[in-house]
């Protein structure tokens, strides 16, 4: 990546030695241009407003505004900087991916892990730039290509293309991948916004499915339609979503 396209990066950490180590790693990474550092959340917010960084290398445990709270605050920022958490504590991983972090790196951060994480941010940025050109300058966030979900004592990476269906279960979403289900703590509305509408479609206020997982459509003669899925299941289609679903069949 050329210097002009390098990710403008902000380091946020309350430990001077951690900032120094990350700054050295950034200097060794061509895809990064370091634009500033902050030692607490309040200072970070001021610098983000002033500098509009592309990427934030963010600690979690800090005085005042912690890293998770800072990431939630940034959900309303446009364009939202990408976030890579750099922390000494493994137990915050679930909360970190709930705020759409790109990656979660444990200290001391290894150079190769940082390079891979930054590479994913750079790839997403290239997609955004391409969509902006195609859309006549109307930028749009890249669709989420993978999810990190908790499963027993680990975090599992799931490619979005592998998800057959998503069902709302109170405060959690059930991601069906083949015969397995994984729980993700997000709203169905947020997931719908993150998924590529060319690949996924909402059938009901509580159900999203992958388009090619729909085997057919059926109606009962009384105006009630259902989607027949590849695994033999049927899902009733909500009236709000019926027109888009029927458009799949050219109706």
Tell me about this structure.
The longest helix has 24 residues, at 111-134. The protein has 251 residues and is α/β, with parallel strands linked by helices. It has two domains: 3-134, Response regulator (Rossmann fold), CATH 3.40.50; 146-247, LytTr DNA-binding domain (OB fold (Dihydrolipoamide Acetyltransferase, E2P)), CATH 2.40.50.1020. A five-stranded parallel sheet has the order 2-1-3-4-5, sandwiched between helices. The chain starts with 6 loop residues before the first strand and ends with a helix. The protein is elongated. The chain has helices spanning 16-27, 41-51, 67-73, 93-98, 111-134, 188-194, 239-247; strands at 7-12, 32-38, 55-58, 82-87, 103-106, 146-151, 154-159, 165-169, 172-177, 180-184, 200-204, 207-210, 214-219, 225-229, 234-236.
Can you give me a brief rundown of this structure?
The chain has helices spanning 16-27, 41-51, 67-73, 93-98, 111-134, 188-194, 239-247; strands at 7-12, 32-38, 55-58, 82-87, 103-106, 146-151, 154-159, 165-169, 172-177, 180-184, 200-204, 207-210, 214-219, 225-229, 234-236.
Looking at CATH, the homologous superfamily of the largest domain is Response regulator
- Secondary structure: helix percent: 25-40%
Strand content: 25-35%
Given as residue ranges, the uncertain stretches (5+ residues, pLDDT < 50) are 136-141
Derived structural class: alpha/beta
The major beta sheet can be summarized as: 5 strands, parallel
Q: How many strands appear in the DSSP assignment? A: 15
Q: What is the total domain count? A: 2
Radius of gyration: 21 Å
Shape: elongated
Terminal-residue CA separation: 46 Å
CATH topology of the largest domain: Rossmann fold
Order of helices and strands: EHEHEHEHEHEEEEEHEEEEEH
- With helices defined by DSSP (H or I, 4 residues minimum), what is the helix count? 7
User: How do the strands of the widest beta sheet line up side by side?
Assistant: 2-1-3-4-5
Architecture of the largest domain, CATH level 2? 3-Layer(aba) Sandwich
CATH class label of the largest domain: Alpha Beta
Average pLDDT taken over every residue: 86
């Amino acid at each position: 990546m050329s210097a002009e396209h390098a990710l403008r990066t902000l380091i946020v950490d309350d430990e001077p030695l951690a900032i120094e180590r990350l700054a050295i790693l950034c200097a060794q990474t061509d895809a990064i241009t370091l634009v500033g550092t902050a030692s607490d959340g309040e200072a970070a917010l001021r610098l983000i407003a002033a500098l509009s960084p592309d990427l934030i290398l963010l600690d979690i445990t800090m005085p005042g505004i912690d890293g998770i709270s800072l990431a939630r605050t940034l959900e309303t920022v446009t364009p939202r900087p990408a976030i890579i958490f750099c922390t000494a504590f493994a137990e915050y991983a679930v909360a970190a991916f709930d705020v759409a972090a790109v990656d979660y790196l444990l200290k001391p951060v290894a150079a190769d892990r940082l390079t891979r994480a930054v590479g994913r941010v750079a790839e997403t940025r290239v997609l955004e730039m391409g969509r902006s050109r195609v859309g006549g300058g109307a930028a749009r966030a890249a669709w989420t290509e993978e999810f990190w979900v908790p499963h027993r004592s680990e975090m599992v990476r799931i490619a979005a293309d592998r998800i057959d269906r998503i069902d709302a279960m109170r405060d959690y979403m059930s991601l069906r991948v083949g015969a397995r289900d994984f729980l993700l703590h997000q709203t169905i509305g947020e997931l719908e916004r993150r998924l590529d509408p060319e690949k996924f479609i909402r059938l009901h206020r509580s159900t999203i499915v992958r388009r090619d997982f729909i085997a057919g459509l059926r109606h009962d003669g009384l105006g009630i339609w259902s989607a027949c899925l590849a695994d033999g299941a049927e899902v009733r289609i909500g009236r709000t979503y019926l027109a888009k679903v029927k458009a799949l069949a050219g109706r």
